[in-house]
Design goal:
- Helix 1 runs antiparallel to helix 3 and helix 2 packs across helix 4.
- Helix content is 52%, strand content 26%.
- It contains five helices and three strands.
Length: 153
C-alpha cells in the first residue's frame, strides 16, 4: 500500500478551502487575469443537496445535529485527464464547476504553480484581509467587564 503524498494533499486542502470561501465573482475575476483553464468534461453535477451539520456543546461535549445546509457538488475531468472535485456551500452550480475545474488544473505540476500564483494566492489574501477587518470590528465593540467591576467601587 502506498502512502498518499501529504504535500499535495495539504496544498489541495488549502486551495479548496480558499475556493470554497471565495465569491464566484472573485474567482471569475482572478481567472480572467490568468491563463485560460483547460477544457473539461463534467463527471457529476453540478448538483445541489442537503448535508447535516453537527455541533458540540462547548466544543467538547457530545455531538448533536445542528441542522441541515445546502451544498452543491461537482466533479470534472480536464483535457489532461486530471479529475477535480468541489463541494460548495449553497446552490451556486457555476461556482462548484469552476472550483472543480480549478482543482483539476491545480494538480498539474507546471500549470498549477502559475494558477496558485495568479488565482489562489490573491483570493487567500483577500479572504485574510476580510477576516482581519471583521476581527477588528468585533474587537472595537469588546467590553472589558473587569474594568466595569472596578469602576463601581
Amino acid at each position: 500500500m502506498t502512502m498518499p503524498n501529504t504535500d499535495i494533499t495539504k496544498r489541495r486542502q488549502s486551495w479548496m478551502a480558499t475556493l470554497a470561501r471565495s465569491d464566484r465573482q472573485a474567482i471569475e475575476e482572478r481567472l480572467s487575469e490568468a491563463v485560460p483553464l483547460p477544457g473539461h468534461t463534467r463527471l457529476r453535477g453540478p448538483e445541489a443537496g442537503l448535508v447535516m451539520v453537527r455541533g458540540r456543546a462547548g466544543g467538547s461535549g457530545a455531538p448533536f445535529n445542528l441542522g441541515e445546509m445546502t451544498v452543491t457538488r461537482c466533479s470534472v475531468r480536464n483535457e489532461q485527464g486530471r479529475i477535480g472535485h468541489a463541494y460548495i456551500a449553497g446552490r451556486d452550480g457555476r461556482k462548484a464547476e469552476l472550483a472543480a475545474a480549478l482543482d483539476a488544473a491545480l494538480q498539474d505540476p507546471d500549470f498549477g504553480t502559475l494558477l496558485e500564483e495568479r488565482v489562489i494566492t490573491p483570493l487567500a489574501s483577500a479572504l485574510a484581509e476580510a477576516d482581519t477587518k471583521v476581527a477588528a470590528e468585533a474587537d472595537a465593540t469588546r467590553v472589558d467587564f473587569f474594568t466595569l467591576a472596578t469602576m463601581r467601587s
